[in-house]
Structures are given as structure tokens and as C-alpha cells.
Amino acid sequence: MPTPSRPIALALGLTFMLTACGGQTFSLPGMQPGPAANGAESSVRGATSGRPLISVPKLYGDLAYTDAGRRAANAPVRVSLTLRYNHQAELDRFVASLSDPRSHRHRFLTAKEFDDYYAPTREQEARVVRALELAGFKVVKEFPNRTIVDAVGRSALVERFFSTEMHTVRQGKHGERYTNVTPATVPRQIASVVRDVSLNDLIVVRTVVDQSARTAPQFPQDSQGRAMIPLSAGHISPGDSTGNLVNGNFASGSLTPGWINESTTRTNYVQVTTAQAYESTYSAFMGTLAAPEINGWSAIAQEVKVPSNGVLSFWVYQGSNEGQLGYGTKYAWQAGYLLNSRGTILDTFYKTVNNTNGWVNYTVNLSSYAGQTDYIYFGCYGDGYDETYVYQYVDDVAWAGASPSPSPTASPTAAPTATPTAKPTATPTASPTATPTASPTSTPTASPTSSPTASPTSTPSSGCNGATADNGPLTNSDGTLATGVAKPFDFPVQHGCNGAGYTAAIAIDDPVNTSYLSTYLSAAEVTQTGSVTNEAVDGGGSGDDAETDLDVQTISGLAPGANIIVYDMGELGDQEIEDTYNQVLNDGKATAVNSSFGGCESSDTSFDDSTNSIAEQGASEGVEFSASSGDSGSNECDGSKGVSAPAGDPYFASIGGIDFTDTSQGVLETVTMGSVDGYSGGGGVSTVFALPSYQSGIAGMITSGRNQPDISLPFYPVAVYTGGAWGEYLGTSWSSPASVALILEANELHSTKLGWVDPAIYSLFSSTGYSEYYTPCTSGNNGAYSCSSTEYNQAAGIGAPKGWALANGL
């Protein structure tokens, strides 16, 4: 595709530790190959026999954290334990046989068959639960397949039980978090049944929005095109029974009565404080006095009935460096609004990035809203940028006795006072838990007696359903649309296979806005027949997310007959991701799972091993896991060589990114690799996983470890409708969901789920090279690695699939 001449609003799709993982040096356990026939199984070096070693997460760039000291003994910590499968070597051989052309392929296990033979037994799970509960933990989540146990306990309890030290840390825009800062071990009484443990709530991977340069926020709009602010209106009560404004000077020393904390940030930055006050003792503070900036809204609101005179008076004391740095109110601001019950902005009192160095009075005429029950709202919005800050104090909010002006206009009057003092700090609420001494009784481990026989997979449809091909515009002014990929890469939808009867799971932090999807599909001239639903995991996410919109729009556009379930997990931490993958398998609906995120694989080897183990269960049940290979080229670890996880897990397909050109009719011309503002498709060699057997003997492989990517699809530019507007995005966050669409269509073509495809795609490449199934990347590089027209390379992998041919060959 020709590169647009206009500037782009960059947004990428990956990287565990931000853009990486170099920076600091530290010692981490490696991985060694296990007894698997296909070389995909692995175990962590450094752990004693039967006692897994829990690594210390090391994150970099804007995912890096700073140590705030030892965590308070009573502060809560959530832990997650991934249990070992039974008959592991036998499972490895079985999964390998599924991709062996000489065997009866696609006779996958049902979830029940897996759970009955390979999954941890009920006795093994009960042994772990009992040990945790006897120690004083509260078990908060278990799964039907008994693979993961989540629990909560006091920090002191976690330290004692896992022989580690827990610290509170600050993770940039993600606020206050916690993690173990020394390697930990599993107690001997349960070590034989526990595979991996997570003791942190860090954000460990990045998505399209996180990796971008600063991007102006976009808020939803009502039917009249008016902006809307998140508002929990249903939870706000009037200041009093008649709707009068109360506690306007915060004299109660708290928000109540009257005010509600309307923050959307993870950490609470709203305080009623004595640090500044206009006339009395207290004021309400929101925001941060220093970088990093809040990420979201820090705000308060009160429901009122607007009186007939309708003149509101209030005082604010504000500070920000956004204006000094030339950003204005593009990314962050202080604001006051009148909102209706749906959060629609009826009137803007002010929207500023002021440094007042004193109190300023505003009076605003709201008489045109007299008699209405609406919401007075004060807040600061920030995007979490680590070099900026925004804050304000609010005081003496009251209806004034002045005569109203003809139109709503705010009139500030300065009243300077002293320079602000230190930022108010929220005091965490302790969640003490009793900690009796653990003395679990050893429980015999039950061993299943017979190996399951795989059941033939049901066939939801017979071959292609004759669906309409994608034939809309190739592009719009913001980038490539669905047909712009389907035609040049010859996706099966062009031959009547649109994924009907099969389901994609999208693992991501926030749910999808289906109205944005409708706008996209209309512009792409694609008719969707599959369903799109959201399913919350671990509490789920909220709000709009460009990454979710990109993933859903890509799969819907390329495989419009497929169903899509968005598993929104709220945050991209290792516990949430592992729970989400496991939930997908327990639900048993999806045949392909997309992960448009990732990060430096050596950051958290417990995470690598746990996600790879869950994906192996998926492989046994016919579920394909795909993930983005990263957008920092060969340097996924903060400027030093490194690859991305979970894409590099051997039971995942690692999807890279390439550039391409095509004719005006959508005929593919060239496949190359370039760099867009320093970003290119991720690739390289693992230092955690050994070379799997399906990559062995392939020309171009570096034999020291698992190589990435496997295949590549378009990287840039993709048009996404998100936040009520079109935007241009790039990254392997686009190529990964495109590969999932291809798998769903191949499933439909064969009238069965194909499952884990890595061995098959390498087998086809080994036998035919570039003559039938793939188009090589002929030029360009991703930093350390260059494309090759004759062999596998760590820039583009095998190359780009010829969609219809590959679907038939699988």
C-alpha cells in the first residue's frame, strides 16, 4: 500500500514491557525442553525438583515500576496458582500426533475428556485449596477444569507462605501496584501439584493504545452529537430531598453528604483535604501534583435541581504543566460541567490547563436549565503520561443570588493565595485476614486409570456456505479496510467461506462498542451474519478501547459469518490473562483465540510457562491460540534483542507484520518490511523456550531457541472506527486478528476445527517452499534480521500466507 503523506496518530499492538525489556540486567531462570515429541513442552530451570521457582517480574519503559517499600502487613494481595496437568509426557505426545500427517488428525478431546484424564484431579485441587485456606487465604476463584486457583490474603501471609518479600510499587500511569521483589517458592506440601504462581498485580503487556504516542481521547456521543462523560448517575442521590446543593464547602470533612467520587482511575486521587481551602477548612482535591499524570477521570459530582435564578458560583485552585509543554487541553485538562443523568455534557463551565497559583472564582449562569434535575461535575482528566500532571482544588460551590445573564458564560475572578502544598495521599484500607498456622494433611493423589480416546469433532457446517465475497472499498482516508486485505491475500471469504459456524475469542481488557462496529462494516461494505458478544472475566473492563475495536472490526470484516466473543478482563495483568485463557477453554465455544498484546518474554517466565501450558490444553481440544509478535522489531526488550510473549510460547502462533503493495483492483504486488516511525514487526529468538521440533530442520532457523514470527500479515495502515471517529493505526495488533479470521474460514472449509496449526504450516513450507502456500518478504528488515526470498527469517517468518491455498492445505 502507498504510504499516506499526512501525519498519523500512531497506535501499536504490543510489548510486554513497554517497548521492552533491556535496560537493567538481572538473573532469570531459563527453560529447557521436556519430553515432548514435538519439542513444545518446557519446564523452568532453577526450580528444585517438585518446587517451582516464582520469578521476579522485571518491566521496562512506561511499564516499569518504582519501589515504594515493603507492603503493609495487612494490605491485601491476590495470588494465582496454575496447577500441573497429569500424564504430561503422554499429553505432549497426543498433541504432537494431532498435527502429524500420518495420523488421524482433528480427532480432538472434548473438554470433559481432557478434564477427566489430564487436568488436575479434584483431590489435587482440594489439596491446594485446603493448604491455602488453612494458612489463612480466602479462595476467590476456581475453574471447572481445576487448572487455576485464585486466592486473596494479607501481604504478611503471602510472604510467609511463599518465602518471599512483597513490596508496594508505582507503575506510572497504572498507579499503585504490588509485586514480589525476591524469588519465591511453593510450600512443599503442594509443590508437586503446582506448576506456576503469580504474586503481582502489575500490568505486564501492552496493546495498540498503550504503545502509541500520546493520542487525544475520544468520548462517546449522544444521539445529538454531544459528548458524554462516564457517570454512575444511578448511584448518585440528591444532596437533600428537594435537590438543594449541599456540603459545597466540604465542611463535613468528606464528600458526604451530597458529593460522589466519580473517578475512573484505578487509584483514588480524590481527597477532601486541608492542604488548600478558600475560606473555610476543607476543599476537594483531584488529580496529581506531579508526574506521572492520572490515567482517566479524577472527579466528583452532585445531583441537584437547578433553581430559577440558576447562577452557580465556585472557586478553583489549579495546576498543570500541559500548557507549558505546548499540549494545551489536547490530552489532559481541568474541567467543570453540568451533566444530565446519562452523562451528556449540557454546559461546560471551563476546560483548562491553568496554573493559577491561587484561588479563582467562577460564576456560571445555568438558568436555562431551571427546574431540571442534573449533575454538577468537577474533574481532572489525564492520559497517564509520565512527563505531565494536572490537578485542581474545588471549594465553596453554591447557588449565587446574582441576577442571571442572558446566556451561560463563565466569568473567572482571580484571588491569589499560597502555593500548593504536598499532594493528599489516599490511605489504603487494610483487609486483615486471620492467619492460623498451616498444617495440611497429606492427601493421596488420584491417578486416572485409562487414557481417553479422542472423540470425532462435530461439524457445524459442510464446507463453504457460498457467502458473499468482500467487495467493498480497499481503503478509506485513514487506512486499509477489510477488502484491502481479503483480496490481495486471497482470504477464503473471497471463495464463499466466511467463518460461519465457528467462533473467535478475543482476549482483551475492555468490551467492544458494537455501534462502532456497525459504522465500520457499513464503510467497508461488509454484511455481518455472525454474532458479537462481551463476556467479563475477573470483573471485566469498561469504556471504549481502540484495541478492542481494531480486533473485532478486523475479524468481522474478514470473516463476517463467524461469531465473536470479547473476553474483557479489565486489566492486562498476568493473572487476568491466564484466567481469561482458561475461561475460554472452560466455556468451550471458541476455536481460535486472539491476543493483540505481549511483551518482553524474559520479564516473567512464570507467565510464559503458565500461558503455554493452557495453550497446550487448547491444542488438545482443537483451539488455536494466536498472538502479536510485537512492534519493536528485533528489540522487544527495551532496546536490546528480545522477543515477545505470549506469542513466543511454542503452543501459540506468532503473527508478525509486513508491508505490501497491490493494484487498484486489490491484486498483490510486493511483500516487504519497513519501519514506520521506528516501529516494525517483532521477531527473533527465544532465550526461554528451546527450538520446537516443528521448526527443526527449516532453513534460516537459529537453533538456540524458539524462533518468531511464524507467519506475517499486514502491519500498516489500518482504518479503525473508535471513540466516535475514524483513526489510522498500525502494528501486529492488526495482523494477529487477521490470522484468526483466516483460521475460522479454514475451519469452515474443512467442516471441522483445525486446532493448533504451527506444525502444519511449517510442514507445508518444508515441502513446497514459496511455490504454493506462501509469499516471501523480499526486502527490508526489523533491525537485526532481514527478509529473505528463499528461506525462513526472523523478520517476517515464513512470509505472508496465500489465504485460500493455505486454508486448503491445512
What is the number of strand segments?
A: 40
Count helical runs: 13
Portion in strands? 15-25%
**Which stretches are low in confidence, meaning pLDDT under 50 for 5 or more residues running?**
1-39, 41-49, 402-449, 455-462
Helix content: 10-25%
Question: How would you characterize the overall build of this protein?
Answer:
The chain has 13 helices and 40 strands. The chain is an alpha+beta fold. The strands form twelve sheets. Strands 25, 26, 27, 28, 30, 32, 33 and 36 form an eight-stranded mixed beta sheet that branches. Strand 26 (532-536), helix 8 (546-558) and strand 27 form a beta-alpha-beta unit. The chain is globular and about 85 Å long. 58% of the residues are buried.
Question: Can you tag this structure with a few keywords?
Answer:
810 residues; alpha+beta; 8-stranded mixed β-sheet; 6-stranded antiparallel β-sheet; 13 helices
Q: What is this structure, in a nutshell?
A:
17% of the residues lie in helices and 25% in strands. It is of the alpha+beta class and 810 residues long.
Outline the fold blueprint.
Layout: E1 31-33, E2 42-44, E3 53-54, E4 66-70, E5 76-83, H1 88-98, H2 111-117, H3 122-135, E6 138-142, E7 148-154, H4 155-162, E8 166-170, E9 176-180, E10 184-185, H5 188-191, E11 194-198, E12 260-261, E13 271-273, E14 283-287, E15 295-305, E16 311-320, E17 333-339, E18 345-352, E19 359-365, E20 373-383, E21 390-399, E22 410-415, E23 475-476, E24 479-480, H6 483-486, E25 503-508, H7 514-524, E26 532-536, H8 546-558, E27 563-568, H9 574-587, E28 592-595, E29 599-600, H10 605-620, E30 624-628, E31 644-645, E32 653-662, E33 668-672, E34 684-685, E35 707-708, E36 711-714, E37 718-722, E38 725-729, H11 732-750, H12 758-768, E39 774-775, E40 800-801, H13 803-809
Helix pairs in contact: 7-8, 8-11, 9-10, 11-13
